[in-house]
Amino acid sequence: MPVAKPLLVAVALVMLLVCVAAAEEPPRHAVAGHYDVAHPRVPNAPRSDSTNSIANPGFETGNVDRGWYDCGDIAAYVTAEHPFAGTYDEYSGTPSGAAEPLGNSGVCQLVTIPRGALLTARLYQLSNEPDASFAYQEGDLLDDRGNVVVNLYKSVNNRAAWVLGKWNLDAYAGRTLWLYFGVHGDGYANRSTEQFVDDVTLTGATGPTPSPSPSTSPRRPAASARI
């Protein structure tokens, strides 16, 4: 039974559109990101109790300041868009949110890790990436050269809601490191990854913070809750 010509034309048109779309999809290449920690090295004093060691934990100054610094290749921002609490939260990504940043967009703060350290942060993460090959949300501890000492999480979560992240950092007690939250991307225009951060806390157990031991090798945080 012969196939109707209109049907054949419709199938051919669909195949042509698929081929054109595939041809217009530009190739992607991984881009190296840089963590800029060339800032004044004045860490917050570690607390030996439940008091928060993070300065400006909710970004309520309305700016990336009071301990926080821009630490990526492109700027991060403080915004009034849906904060978890208060008036402001931090945002990493492109200004429009319509593409991937080219490199890193994020903030960092220099902290001395107290004994029994527990880090918490509220995260609001959006992404339409299928995986973390070219872009992702992340949290890290960095050394003074901008090297990653430990990656706390690396994700492409897409959930329009605040989630509480918790990380046990007791293995790093006594060390002074840069706490970093941000987004990494390859500059791709057809995908988008964003991250909002609010209410960052770093608390310790009662007792003095030990001095770091030179013989202790860095370890991944115990019971790290990946977001």
What can you tell me about this protein's structure?
The chain has 227 residues and is mainly beta. The chain has a single domain, classed as Galactose-binding domain-like (Jelly Rolls, Sandwich). The chain is 9% helix and 34% strand. The protein is built from 1 helix and 10 strands; from the N terminus they run αββββββββββ. A 5-stranded antiparallel β-sheet has the order 1-4-9-6-7, with no helix packed on it. A 5-stranded antiparallel β-sheet has the order 2-3-10-5-8, with no helix packed on it. Strand 6 and strand 7 form a beta hairpin. The longest helix has 20 residues. The radius of gyration is 22 Å and the shape is globular. It starts with a helix and ends in a 24-residue tail after the last strand.
SSE map:
Blueprint (H helix, E strand, L loop, with lengths): L4 H20 L44 E2 L6 E3 L9 E4 L9 E11 L5 E10 L8 E7 L5 E8 L3 E10 L7 E11 L6 E11 L24
Antiparallel strand pairs: 1-4, 2-3, 3-10, 4-9, 5-8, 5-10, 6-7, 6-9
Q: How would a crystallographer describe the biggest sheet?
A: 5 strands, antiparallel
Helix % is: under 10%
What's the overall geometry?
globular
Name the CATH superfamily assignment.
Galactose-binding domain-like
Structural class: mainly beta
The count of β-strands is: 10
Number of helices: 1
Q: What is the count of structural domains? A: 1
Task: Produce a short descriptive summary.
The chain has one helix and ten strands, in the order H-E-E-E-E-E-E-E-E-E-E.
